[in-house]
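Cont'd.
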Amino acid sequence: MDSGYVTLEQVAEHAGVSLATASRVINGSTRQVSQRLRDRVTASAQQLGYLANASAQTLARNSSSLVGLLVHDISDPYFSSIAAGVTRCTEEQGLVLVLGTTGRSVQKEGRVLAALRSHRAKAVILVGSRSTDEESNARLAREIEAFRRQGGRVACVSQPGLPADTVSPDNASGAAALARHLVGLGHRRFAILAGPSDLRTARERLDGFHGALSAAGIALDHNNVMHGAFTRDGGYESTRRLMTLGTDATCLFAVNDVMATGAMAALRDLGMKVPGDLSVAGFDDIPTLRDLTPALTTVRLPLEEMGEKAAELALDVDHEGDFRVVTVPGEVVARESTAPPTAP
Amino acid sequence: MDSGYVTLEQVAEHAGVSLATASRVINGSTRQVSQRLRDRVTASAQQLGYLANASAQTLARNSSSLVGLLVHDISDPYFSSIAAGVTRCTEEQGLVLVLGTTGRSVQKEGRVLAALRSHRAKAVILVGSRSTDEESNARLAREIEAFRRQGGRVACVSQPGLPADTVSPDNASGAAALARHLVGLGHRRFAILAGPSDLRTARERLDGFHGALSAAGIALDHNNVMHGAFTRDGGYESTRRLMTLGTDATCLFAVNDVMATGAMAALRDLGMKVPGDLSVAGFDDIPTLRDLTPALTTVRLPLEEMGEKAAELALDVDHEGDFRVVTVPGEVVARESTAPPTAP
DNA sequence: CACGTCCTGGAAAACTCTTTCCCAGGGTAG
DNA sequence: CTACCCTGGGAAAGAGTTTTCCAGGACGTG
């Protein structure tokens, strides 16, 4: 209690039992220990203020109570919402969460994954879409395999196609439903902030939206599709570019909410009214959205639940074998940022 | 490389050196190793794909590369911004960040702290104001002492008075500066969303604001000070309550931005115009603020830098002895949510 | 040339647990 | 009554590092 550590050996000695017995009492192994000794050991542990040395346990068991969570940017509300769901689940189970931020860098991702492997983390949860680049996906798949071979478990959010359990929003259907809703409002000419062209999530949403338009007999002008960074500033920038080039669109769809937020800021700076001059819609329903004016129409994803579900998948030790995919439907939430187009 | 682990012993054998030498090469101890052996060992490690077992290292060194970060709620942009700053610093140093969320529960805080102790974490950073309750502060102080006795380092953000290095915003001065600014605009009657009455940060801001008003010869009506939860919903709720009771105030100060955000939503729902019917100001300058309409007047804190600074303090191993306090000034940022009061 | 010093490498202890193996004692079945 | 099994306890063998201690060789000095 003073300055050093209380070891299990000291507890055993204090209780007058062997080290083995003390260990069996404290962690509750399969072996039985008589009630009498059990009481003595717990009393001694209590009295001495025993706290197990986690690294010694990890070394002996070859498995730790650490769970990794990899996100691109923790200050992005999309990721922090998912992170909140993950923490809820891990804390329930007494596990310790390790947060790694990748900044979308494959190298950093690799470093964090290696660190988790080195710590014998029990599981890792990868959040956020990766690129569609074949090579970096293959490398990630190898890292995942290495992690799993060491006894770790893996789950992904928003990145289907990897060799792991996955929680994946139904991007295409959600975007299609949104498109139909907007067409229902009377819109015929759309502009799209499509994000990076090599990002899977971005592309699925674009394709779903585009597909639904095609099905409704509406063409999408190539000049109305802007690619750019998947961030608020990317949305701002893309919108300015779009407006500088000029557009005939009556409705702007940003494939995620942070870009839509940037778009709204750009339009405000340009003196354009939403939805009067242009309707705007996003995707994700991040919590900060409801405080925008006008409130943003979007496709709602249950972000916290998705994080929680991913953690459950990753920590469900019973399951072995093929990879499960949980598809999460998106729900169109109509708010004030979209309205029927005003007559031209 | 196949299914098991490569140990340092295997690397040593492969390189034809002793375990001790291999260890000295890989981690770079104080001891010299000849260039010849050095090359052999690194080559073998590379070839075999050696990855150190972190728990074994922790056990042997009695210190790990883990750094704890305790926040109340990671999905709150205030905390996630600070977290982003902390991660930047820890990743630079190759450390692994453990994220603990407390939900403002003292028990959970204790549990996380114990887990970090058990893992021999190198440092822990406590973010967010605690209560002004003497007893729970004393308990926290004891936990901190225990952590430090085990060789860990501690830093706090926004909670001065604890036995640890601290990064603390100058709440009183910032709030006072804001008050002077608002008085300068012509406001004389204020309402305040003061947060929980036992939260140190909240009280400092309230007191600073109040003090500046007094200095300007302005009284603060007791009925215009609403206490409530330190969250968006708390701000919403408090504002509704305030308006239901009725107020003569021309300006509303919420002691943090998330409450101000809730206040704006409540006013919108009540059909009141900001700043036309009521000016609103907050405190913190969380990133999401700039996308509100009208944009919120606030006191800007450099949140990411504060996180980074706290991490630096916690990881500055050179420093021993008395506790350093870094005071961070807040800067009034005037935006559209405040304007001179309209004639009564 | 002898002796002390410095430097490099290796053997082995230490770190704190978990778990296997072994043993004693008591109960049960034949 | 003996052989066998079952239960509960302890000794000891790991788990993979770091680090201390010791040995031997090179080198410098008197």
